[in-house]
Write a structure and sequence with these properties.
- The structure is a single chain.
- This protein has about 675 residues and is of the alpha+beta class.
- The protein has 20 helices and ten strands.
- Strand 6 and strand 7 form a beta hairpin.
- Helix 6 runs antiparallel to helix 7.
């Protein structure tokens, strides 16, 4: 009877448990759906503080529901917004936490999410190579472990990456892979077709562009982004030869960078060289200003990340020491538990012995009262003793079995946890060793690069004249300070046949590429000048040589002049350079294009009838655009005031006075551009 009741009770208990479990799962699923909707609403509305709270609740609900795909998607969305609102170091730290969490639990979708989010962040900071590598790895994860998931969004991102670095053929390849995905959505199909149109537009393939454009327009269920569609419509107008329509569309971009780029490109396509030159200057000025800001932000970010890395290494050492102490404490606690179990067993045995003694005493007392009663009581006592002994035996067996299972379970749990902790310690040690080796390699490579750049700096400076001989009829001095190890500014001056030949220039950009173009320009100037050509002829020859096969689009602004020391007559040609100061006043110069932009340009020269007794001061924009700590520029007015104040001094004293004034103004702020000046006085 008791067994039947026990079976019925167990069945009812299991039935109630199943009902409660199903009800709880339904409630959890509804909670996950609602929190997911709230998360995407807050993500699109850029409500970062609310998004943090919602993602934490959604992750807990997903764990209860076992929905780890939604769990990692929510985590990835929070990381993307953290990069925007907090910064890249915190976002990369969160990606590492996601990856570690997925590795510990062998969650393949978590590894995919961490890889995809890493690619997205690298794309945001301009690391196209790293972004492409991680996007491809993320696509491999989906194909291998989740073939039901679409890879189209990844290949669309790869196609846009290729477009950004002008790899148009590769962009077409990735767009086609997105279209070939069996799970591609209508929106992804539209984005892939749009990338194809842009790629064929840059390549100038009208037939392929028209086919892709027609297929894009045929997709009616999803609309394309208006600003991205402007890109496609501009190329359509260009390929059809409607340059006025292309110019009109270029002015409709909301992004200033895209607007100034396409204004410049549409003028160039139409052959309007004068407007193209002005638009190109606007475009380069905007790009240079953005690049200068990016350089300062990346420098600050580098120091912040270095401090974070040092702090993380110290915290890892502390965590390792804490883990060792915790292991030692757990071993001590396990030994205490074993002793407590042994003491409980001894106490149970003593209780059984006392119970047996009490039973014997009771039987003896019953026998003394009466023989008949003793016989009856003896029979009853034996029956009761057997039942009690059997019951006690069952209790002892159950207790011993339960305690044994408890001890075995605890030992297995302890051994499993200790083995997992040992694997984690080995992994941490391996990561620390790898990080140390990488840091050591990076440090050695940096020292080697700095040594090579120092040699390049010495070679570059040795190419420029430094010993300025004071002629009887002329006094000259020059000064140059590169912003980096090597720079893009240039100057040259030499004396030949009673004529003084000199020039000054500024290569677009800084660093090693600019220094190479600077060396080429100086050598070409000296060769052309020694042949006796005029300044405008020298500028024309330099432009033809530098613009030939100039795939990088680099150029140099120059001021070229020749002074006849007998008559004082000066011929000069200004190729897009800052106007010099003559006796403290800015000169009126013809607006020629910089050297190297377009071939077959003819440059226009000018003249000054008599330079005797006058002071000519030439400079690059690193002087008047030098910034102090408040990002205020030295300016043209302040430069003109310094020249007027010191124009009665010799050339060396004047350049030293201007250099001192600039250094005092910037007050130790980081130099952002090369600084060069040249002073010439004719007696």
């Amino acid at each position: 009877m008791r067994k039947r009741l026990l079976v019925i009770f167990s069945f009812l208990f299991l039935l109630m448990t199943c009902v409660l479990t199903v009800s709880a799962q339904n409630d959890t699923t509804a909670e996950v759906k609602q929190l997911t909707k709230d998360m995407y609403d807050q993500f699109n509305a850029d409500e970062y503080e609310k998004l943090i709270t919602t993602v934490d609740k959604l992750k807990e609900a997903c764990i209860r529901a076992g929905d780890y795909k939604t769990f990692y998607k929510a985590w990835g969305n929070l990381i993307i917004k953290t990069k925007t609102h907090v910064g890249r170091p915190q976002a990369m730290k969160m990606i590492k936490e996601m990856r570690d969490y997925a590795v510990q639990r062998d969650h393949k979708f978590g590894l995919y999410s961490a890889t995809y989010t890493t690619a997205y962040l690298l794309n945001q900071i301009g690391d196209q190579a790293g972004a492409e590598q991680n996007y491809l790895k993320a696509a491999e994860y989906l194909k291998k472990y989740f073939p039901e998931e679409s890879t189209a969004s990844i290949y669309v991102s790869l196609s846009k990456l290729a477009l950004a670095v002008k790899e148009d053929t590769i962009a077409i390849h990735y767009a086609q892979q997105a279209l070939d995905d069996p799970h591609v959505t209508p929106l992804q199909r539209v984005m892939a077709k749009g990338s194809m149109c842009l790629a064929y537009g840059w390549l100038g393939k009208k037939k392929e562009f028209d086919e892709a454009y027609a297929k894009l327009k045929a997709i009616n269920d999803v609309s394309y982004n208006q600003q991205e569609m402007l890109n496609i419509e501009i190329f359509k107008a260009k390929l059809e030869g409607d340059f006025e329509e292309a110019k009109r569309l270029a002015h409709q971009f909301k992004s200033k960078q895209m607007r100034v780029l396409y204004i410049y490109k549409t003028h160039e396509w139409a052959g309007d060289w004068k407007e193209a030159l002005q638009a190109f200057r606007d475009f380069r000025f905007y790009i240079d200003s953005v690049n200068n800001l990016d350089i300062r932000e990346q420098a600050a970010l580098y120091h912040s990340e270095l401090n974070v890395a040092l702090a993380e290494n110290e915290s890892k050492d502390l965590r390792l020491a804490n883990k060792r102490l915790q292991l030692s404490q757990m071993e001590h606690e396990l030994e205490l538990k074993r002793l407590e179990v042994e003491a409980a067993n001894l106490k149970l045995e003593n209780s059984n012995i006392e119970l047996a003694n009490a039973t014997i005493q009771l039987e003896n007392d019953s026998l003394e009262r009466s023989e008949q009663a003793a016989k009856i009581n003896e029979y009853k006592s034996r029956m009761e003793a057997e039942e009690k002994a059997e019951h006690a035996h069952h209790v002892i067996i159950f207790a011993a079995s339960f305690i044994t299972l408890l001890i075995l379970g605890f030992l297995l749990f302890y051994l499993h946890r200790r083995q997992r902790q040992m694997r984690r310690l080995q992994q941490v040690n391996t990561e620390l060793k790898t990080a140390y080796d990488q840091l050591k390699t990076t440090t050695m490579a940096k020292e080697h690069m700095e040594n090579e750049l120092q040699v390049a700096r010495e070679i570059q400076l040795s190419m420029l004249p430094h010993n300025f001989v004071q002629l009887r009829r002329a006094d000259a001095h020059a000064f140059m300070r590169p912003a980096k190890f090597v720079g893009g500014d240039l100057y040259d001056i030499f004396y030949q046949n009673d004529k003084l030949y000199f020039c000054i220039g500024d290569v677009a950009g800084k660093g090693v590429p600019a220094s190479m173009l600077m060396a080429v320009a100086v050598n070409l100037f000296r060769m052309a000048a020694k042949e006796g050509f005029s300044p405008q002829q020298i500028a024309t020859k330099l432009n033809g040589a530098i613009s030939a096969d100039n795939e990088q689009g680099m150029f140099v602004t120059m001021f070229i002049a020749i002074i006849d020391l007998n008559t004082g007559h000066m011929d000069y040609c200004n190729a897009g350079h800052n106007p010099p100061l003559l006796d403290g006043e800015y000169m009126e110069v013809v607006c020629n294009a910089p050297v190297g932009l377009w071939p077959e340009l003819q440059y226009v020269g000018q003249e000054v009838v008599n330079m005797k007794g006058r002071c000519l001061f030439l400079y690059t924009d690193g002087l008047n655009e030098a910034e102090n700590r408040e990002q205020q520029q030295f300016g043209d007015d302040r430069l003109q005031q310094e020249i007027r104040q010191h124009q009665e001094e010799d050339a060396l004293s004047m350049t030293e006075a201007v250099e001192k004034a600039v250094d005092c103004f910037v007050d130790g702020a980081e130099q952002s551009d090369d600084l060069t000046m040249l002073c010439i006085k004719i007696h």
